[in-house]
Amino acid sequence: MPEPNNKNSTRISAFRLSAKWTIGAVFFLILIGGIVRSSGSGMGCPDWPKCFGTWVPPTNLSQLPLDYQERFAVSGKPADTFNAIKTWTEYINRLIGVVIGLLIFLTTIMAYRIRKYNFKIFIFSLAAFLLVAFQGWLGAQVVYSNLTPYIISLHMFLALVIVAILIYALFISGSRQEIGNWPEWLMKHKTWIILCLFLSVLQIFLGTQVRESIDQVSAKLGESRRSEWISNTGIVFYIHRSFSIILLIFNGILIFKSYDLNNPNTLVSRLLVGCGTVILAETAIGIGLTYGGFPAFLQPFHLLFGALLASMQFYLLMGSFMFNQALKNPTSPKFSNAAPTI
Known about the structure:
With 342 residues, the chain is mainly α. The chain has two domains: 1-173, no CATH class; 178-342. It has eleven helices and no strands. It has helices at 6-38, 68-71, 84-113, 119-144, 149-173, 175-179, 184-188, 190-221, 235-258, 267-291, 299-328.
């Protein structure tokens, strides 16, 4: 791997800026996707990629043919009654997906320009781009299957995989310039970080099972009995709720063991504070959903904060592995003395 000259440094900076914007956009899409689900807008557009057969969705029922429900039936089921808000909520979700596709294409181009500096950056960026294309196809299957729960869950988990790949590419792009001297204790706590990350991903999976149960219950009870949804989800909800306590305890121990009071402004310290803040917010939102009648506006943030927590833990894990490499090869130019930043 060649040393980063001025030309490489400029291109690396351009790649990192593009990657950061793309990662931020994916998180925003996760939030919007949660809004689509919580507002019941998933079938606001019963066809794909168009919406009611046009590239610009209708804003009024009068713009649709009288037999639109039969004409746009999905899996033998008539289309939902037209609702302009739900239609445009789903369509905006699709438009943001297109923007992410363009952003990740730009990121891949930027990665190609620094392939001689680090070919792995290009490979992982390309993999993320291909997965975004697959994600678009999977989004179409969500519509064609009339919101089959396991396809929705797969759609969501694929977004997390894309984020992880982009975070890894971003991480290794800064290894020479920014990774530097991560605290020595980070290596000692690598196993603990892995455990916390595993628990976070498992909790997200349990959350998808709760959401699938909620989908079934809401279809039976209707919106008017929203406050009864949780009590009818069965044991999966109580497992998810109890597991959140375990997650809170384990992450609390990680932060207590790892936080450096003498260096509160380092990247590692900020990530640990971020993990603590997010998990407290996640817990508060969970309480609000449980005892507040399952308000729709809280649902998207519950998923978003779960994704943010796992992503920050993943970045910490990358740092612990990087520190391990530095111990094995301390003279490598790959490890500078600069403090890591995002």
